[in-house]
Write a structure and sequence with these properties.
The chain is built from 28 helices and 29 strands. By secondary structure, it is an alpha/beta fold.
Length: 926
């Protein structure tokens, strides 16, 4: 890519497939994505650091539109800050994805007729490592195709030795602080994945099920038919009931407290207890207590020192587990929980213990990975105490150290942290970070260690390591610090680039990842990991359904890149997403979905080709050297519009960081309006440069005069800055065109647009505003003639006459009569007598009038008849509408929105009537 290739090597149509890869390779070769700790101001350099940590995709993932959206947003922001002059670092990486990756290997084994037990743990882990090494990280290679400018030399992996060291250090530190403990309690259990899940991984789903009302006979009652009715949605768990509970103040049951009921099917006597957990207004006011299979019941069981029999196996089949004795009948043992439910219902019906069944809407938790219905299960697990960690994370957002965009997510974040529960971090998997705890086989001592333990430090006996691994998110929550060298506090990268700046992700992982990263930042670095959390929307199809591979409604970004180029994808994504709004795309019609980006890329390319063909490759004058009197009004107008566009982009992108460590109120929710930024840049190129300024230069460039050089200089300057503004969104096409722009003779420029300086707005003077307003009048005059041509269906190539009667600035129109005529295909006369009837009129903003005589252009008699007919029909319709709006019966009976709509229609018709009457007067003489 030479500095100024000749125009003839620029194809008539932009071919992204022939240029994007070569451009990207040149960027990589030049090292422009690589950050240098020494250049960071925090390490004594001269640049402000700006850092984004990429949400690490699963190591086995392939690119989908969700990744395309997320990484395009990150790249736009990183490229912007790189051009501003920051020392930018975008840290890429992948997540080992414990459950997801293990599931893949287990499915492979199943297809071979094997299970993980057949291999054993060591061989299973080795096979998984081999699989990851062979296929892992493909998604990062795919991200290059959409232009991601990450520092690939710093690619991180959550199961790498470096990050594994950080994970162990975090576990040990928290354990030493008393924030990690081993607990025996009810957790969420996935019978498919055979592992525990955190609260966030067991996702709620509102579903319609049944509420079963079951009679529990009262033991020792005089009336043998006396019973308490208990309502449950999970009758299969009743075999684990150890009590029924009532509210202590419920007068209906006070006398029954301390008595017993007989548990149906199991025929076991269980006590009636009083506990404030019971809502006396819900159902019958009596609830069954199953401590081993319900988290709330577990708490009741702990308070009342109740037994906790386990009546299900890990795979969700019925079983007589710990303390269950023989509660589960032999014919139910080994039966799946849902089949057991049906059998138990039939048994209750047979014994007449089932009193009623009614539909019931309730929340059911599903595994976030395999969608299996989660089972509450009593188990020994490792937990993190979260309330102490949540306190600084809450304070940071409340005090403005961290902001959340869109603002509505702030309340969600606060609510979750205020009600946070301890985090279950152990998983019954083989793939992941093994919990760094060893147990002595001789003295039962447990040892938490940063390094592997070979013998008990107390008695010297043999030890074995805990079988469980850590939740995948336990490594991910450290990503902003572990990727920069923590726990090595002397790390140059940590000093240069922490805290980072923006965290860009989807709202779905606000709790899984984002909030936990904030907690980790304060827990291990005593500082926030970032100052801005940007939560973008979700990619949905034309039916507003979230795109998903399993639903078959997804779009492969690489298909889009192959057909239309990366810039078309990126522009479509950015322009189509308002702050926090979902992005709608049609997987059945890629051409229509990505038309905004494809069409704009084509327009940009055509503007570039025209400019290069006319401006040529020879050096141009610098705009800074041009004297004001050398500039035409059109030049001053486009330079003013460029400045206004730069300012609009500046406002839309907003402040990059809080100056004093906290966001001031007026900046807290400002900026990162990427769709507004993209529209400002697009509008300037398409509506102002292409539609207007380019047209004004056609008679000037190539004339061989000083004015020709002025036009060359201004047009080149304007397009250069437009390409700079668009580069973060459309990096490939802008780089391709920019490389070919002529350079100002008195200046030098860098090798790549990707590191060229970002445009800076200057204060707008009253002269600037006046110049723009004056040229806007010229444009309005052109538009008025064009509108008249359109209204009266005058052929585009037909030369017509036009008269402008100025009210404020005759010299302006005199000076630009030729230009107006050139742009409107008209012979323009300034001033003079009005042509009278048979002419079309248009009034400009300053009161000046544009008049186009229509004699010989249209059949006046026919046109007048048509206009009068339209006017008469409209007056009839308007009269009927006005009468309806004066009718109290209509006003009182019709919905308010209908009445309002009719009133709006009346105003529009009144306006239209006036316009038609004016046309009839002008054209037909009344």
């Amino acid at each position: 890519m030479s500095t100024s290739p000749e125009f003839h090597d620029l194809p008539a149509q932009y071919e992204p497939g022939q240029t994007e890869r070569a451009i990207y390779d040149r960027w990589i070769e030049a090292g422009i994505f690589a950050a240098d700790e020494k250049r960071s101001r925090r390490n004594g350099g001269d640049r402000d650091p700006f850092v984004i940590v990429m949400p690490p995709p699963n190591v086995t993932a392939v690119l989908h539109m969700g990744h395309g959206l997320n990484n395009t947003v990150q790249d736009v922001i990183i490229r912007w800050r790189r051009m501003v002059g920051d020392e930018t670092l975008w840290v890429p990486g992948t997540d080992h994805a414990g459950i997801a990756t293990q599931n893949i290997i287990e499915k492979q084994l199943a297809s071979e007729g094997k299970s993980k037990s057949d291999l054993g743990r060591e061989a299973f882990v080795e096979r998984t490592i081999a699989f990851v090494e062979e296929t892992g990280g493909e998604i990062l290679r795919q991200l290059r195709a959409i232009g991601a400018s990450a520092d690939w030399n710093r690619t991180a992996y959550t199961l790498s030795p470096e990050l594994s060291r950080a994970v162990r250090e975090a576990f040990v530190q928290l354990h030493e602080r008393g924030l990690i403990y081993r607990g025996h309690r009810v957790i969420h259990w996935c019978p498919r994945c055979l592992t525990s899940l955190s609260d966030e991984e067991a996702e709620h789903s509102e579903e319609t099920g049944n509420l079963y009302h079951i009679a529990y006979p009262i033991v020792g009652a005089r009336n043998k038919s006396s019973f308490l009715t208990v309502a449950t949605t999970r009758p299969e768990t009743m075999l684990g009931d150890v009590a029924v509970a009532v509210h202590p103040e419920d007068e209906r049951y006070k006398k029954l407290v301390s008595k017993s009921v007989l548990l149906p099917i199991a025929n076991v006597e269980i006590p009636i207890i009083a506990d404030e957990y019971v809502d006396p207004k819900f159902g019958t006011g009596v609830v069954k207590i199953t401590p081993a299979h319900d988290p709330n019941d577990f708490e009741v069981g702990m308070r009342h020192k109740l037994p906790m029999p386990v009546i299900m196996a890990p795979d969700g089949t019925m079983a007589n587990g710990a303390d269950a004795d023989s509660r589960v009948p032999a014919d139910l043992v080994g039966i799946d929980r849902f089949e057991a439910r049906e059998r138990i219902i039939r048994m209750l019906e047979k014994s007449r213990a089932l009193k009623k069944v009614e539909p019931h809407q309730h929340a059911i938790r599903h595994c976030y990975r395999c969608d299996t219905v989660v089972e509450p299960r009593l188990s020994d697990q490792w937990f993190v105490k979260m309330k102490p960690l949540a306190k600084p994370a809450l304070h940071a957002v409340r005090e403005g150290t961290i902001r959340i965009l869109p603002e509505r997510w702030e309340a969600v974040y606060v609510n979750w942290l205020e009600n946070i529960r301890d985090w279950n971090i152990s998983r019954q998997l083989w793939w992941g970070h093994r919990i760094p705890v060893w147990y002595c086989d001789a003295c039962n001592q447990h040892i938490v260690s940063r390094t592997d333990v070979s013998a008990c430090d107390k008695c010297g006996g043999p030890v074995h390591q805990d079988e469980d691994v850590l939740d995948t998110w336990f490594s991910s929550w450290l990503f902003p610090i572990s990727t920069l060298g923590w726990p090595d506090k002397s790390s140059a990268a940590l000093a240069a680039f922490y805290p980072t700046d923006d965290l860009i992700t989807a709202p779905e992982i606000l709790f899984f990842w984002v909030a936990r990263m904030v907690m980790a930042g304060y827990a291990f670095m005593d500082a926030p990991p970032f100052h801005s959390i940007y939560l973008h929307g979700t990619v949905r199809d034309a039916d507003h359904v979230k795109m998903s591979k399993s639903l078959g409604n997804g779009i492969d970004p690489l298909d889009v890149v192959a057909k239309y180029g990366a810039d078309a994808l990126r522009y479509t994504v950015i322009s189509g997403m308002g702050m926090g709004a979902d992005l709608m795309l049609d997987h059945r019609d890629l051409e229509r979905s990505f038309a905004p980006g494809r069409n704009f890329a084509t327009k940009l390319w055509n503007v570039g080709r025209f400019l290069l063909a006319n401006v040529g490759a020879s050096p141009v004058r610098s705009v800074d050297e041009l004297k004001d009197e050398e500039l035409a009004l059109a030049d001053r107008w486009i330079l003013g519009r460029l400045n206004a566009t730069i300012l609009a982009c500046h406002i839309a992108l907003g402040p990059a960081r809080p100056e004093q460590g906290k966001w001031p109120p007026d900046e807290r929710y400002a900026g990162l309006r990427l769709s507004e930024y993209s529209e400002a840049a697009r509008r300037f190129v398409w509506n102002e440069v292409a539609d207007w300024y380019l047209e004004t230069t056609k008679g000037r460039i190539g004339a061989g005069s000083g004015d020709s050089e002025v036009a060359r200089a201004v047009l080149t300057h304007v397009f250069d800055h437009a390409l700079r503004l668009l580069h973060p969104i459309m990096p490939f096409i802008t780089e391709t065109l920019w490389q070919r722009l002529p350079v100002a003779a008195s200046t030098s420029r860098c090798e790549f647009l990707a590191i060229a300086s970002w445009p800076i707005p200057h204060p707008e003077s009253s002269k600037d505003r006046n110049d723009m307003a004056r040229f806007d009048l010229v444009r309005d005059a052109v538009s008025a003639v064009r509108q008249i041509r359109s209204d009266y269906a005058i052929a585009p190539g037909k030369l017509i006459d036009a008269v402008i009667q100025s009210r404020t600035d005759s010299q302006l129109f005199e000076d630009h009569a030729k230009l107006i005529g050139q742009l409107a295909r008209a012979t323009v006369t300034i001033g003079g007598a009005s042509p009278g009837a048979g002419a079309a009129h248009s009034v400009l903003a300053d009161g000046s009038e544009v008049i186009v005589p229509l004699g010989g252009l249209v059949d006046l008699s026919k046109e007048c008849g048509k206009l009068r007919g339209e006017l008469k029909q409209l007056e009839t319709q308007l009269e009927a509408l006005s009468k309806r709006l004066q009718n109290d019966g209509f006003i009182n009976r019709a919905p308010a929105n209908v009445v309002e709509s009719e009133r709006t229609k009346e105003q529009e018709w009144i306006k239209r009537r006036g316009q038609l009457a004016e046309k009839v007067e002008a054209l037909c003489g009344g």
